[in-house]
Amino acid sequence: MTTKNNQNYNKEYIEYVKKIAPKTNEARSLFHAFLVGGFICLIGQFIRYLFLYTFGLFGDELAGATSMALIFIGCVLTGFGVYDNIGHFAGGGSIVPITGFANSVCSPAMEFKSEGFVYGLASKMFVVAGPIIVYGVSASVLTGLIYYFIGIFTA
């Protein structure tokens, strides 16, 4: 008897959610994500060429300087509240590039700064970005070990 009642409640809840949930246009959302993500990458490429031809940077220095510039831009835009508007418009297109990672670190830091440096800013800064860092480092270590053992066994 209770299983049947639970199924009725589940159906009613699903119908309720469908009724009040906002309708989304997936094609438009994908287009916005592609447009904004591509534009962010275009800006990154422009900065890369700027550093290459203006400062003569090459290799790792060029990659590092470009990454730092994009992280700085992402944090500044987050600080002024602009990146939230970009994220609302672009969805996933604003999250994927390096500026999205900068936003995911900077935004919680700004939100919890009133709780103090240790218990607010320092402890909450990586709430969103922490899992990204953990799984990124873990995947890179695992990939490195696989390449290491492939090198040992094929040599």
Could you explain how this protein is built, in words?
The chain is mainly α. Helix content is 81%, strand content 0%. The chain has a domain at 29-125. It has seven helices and no strands. The longest helix is centred in the first third of the chain and has 30 residues, at 26-55. It is extended. The N and C termini lie far apart (67 Å). The model has no long low-confidence stretch (mean pLDDT 87).
Computed structural class: mainly alpha
What is the chains' assembly state?
A: single chain
Q: Strand-residue fraction?
A: under 5%
Write down the overall geometry: extended
How far is the N terminus from the C terminus? 67 Å
Order of helices and strands, N to C?
Answer: HHHHHHH
Report the sheet with the most strands, covering strand number, pairing sense and barrel closure: none
Rounded to an integer in angstroms, the radius of gyration calculated over CA atoms is: 22 Å
Name the average pLDDT. 87
